[in-house]
Amino acid sequence: DLGRLPHEEQLYWKVSNIAPPPGAKISNTANARWFDGRFCNPEFPDLKFKYQFRLFNESWNEKYDWQLFLPLVSDDIHRLKTLHCLTQSDNPSDFEEQILSITKIIIDSLNEAELVKKIDETNIDVQAKLKELKVSDKYSVKGGISKFELYLLSQGKDLHESILFLRNLQELRSSTTAHRKSRSKVKNYESYFLIQNRTQQEVLENIFNKGIELL
After folding, report:
1. pTM of whole model > 0.85?
2. How far is CA 76 from CA 39, 71, 80, 83, 184, in A?
3. Rounded to whole angstroms, what are the CA distances from 116 to 68, 69, 113, 137?
4. With contact defined as beta carbons under 8 Å apart, do 46 and 207 qualify?
């Protein structure tokens, strides 16, 4: 930014220069916002997810007049604000905390009451799914993900990949933060997220990207 100043001005400011750490650089987003004064969408997966989540909620509410994702309760408001990518390749405690947060944001916050209202039990695909779930009607369905899937089927949408992502994310949360860890065999979520072949940092960034695709 200072390079755009006249040469004499550059010499004046040069005496105050502090060299950045080796390999450090400013992201394209930061450069556009800080120096060019331009609006720029975020690039990092965590920032992009939070940005897209806000836009999605606004668009959904405007179109349908109800919320797909309910607002977080007061004790969980910090979950969205503090959501972030890992700064280290592996950090088990931070990894588990971020998994817990993103699960609360996009699974635990599903508006189950409204979803059930909108499920069309006369839909053939919905009837088939109810039979597969071994329940008699939509009011007997357990879990937000299943209710969301039935709602999508009612709308003529078969978003298999999105539902698969949500179920594996829920299983990952249950296995890492809610229960005693077991290494008896490779779990479905481990294969889905390629946990054996990736660092926790890479796994979390992949989850953010899949969350963006879902939205």
Report:
1. no
2. 29, 9, 8, 11, 33
3. 12, 14, 5, 10
4. no
Long-range contacts of 25-32 (CB under 8 A, 24+ apart): none
pLDDT digits (tens, 9 = 90+) for 16-48: 887 776 766 666 666 666 676 666 565 688 989
The phi, psi pair for 113, rounded to 5°, reads: -60, -45
Pick from 139, 152, 70: which is nearest to 108 by CA? Answer: 70
Q: Which amino acid is at 92?
A: P
* Among the listed residues 148, 144, 145, the one whose alpha carbon sits nearest the alpha carbon of residue 119: 148
Cα gap 111→98, rounded to integer Å: 22
Handedness of CA 215, 165, 105, 88 (dihedral sign): negative
Q: Which residue has the tokens 């499920």?
A: 119
Residues whose CB falls within 8 Å of the CB of residue 115, separated by 6 or more in sequence, listed in order: 144, 147, 148, 150, 151
d(CA 148, CA 69): 11
Dump the DSSP string for 127-190: HHHHHHHT-SSGGG--SHHHHHHHHHHHTT---HHHHHHHHHHHHHHIIIIIS----SS--HHH
- Phi and psi at 179, nearest 5°, equal -135, 165
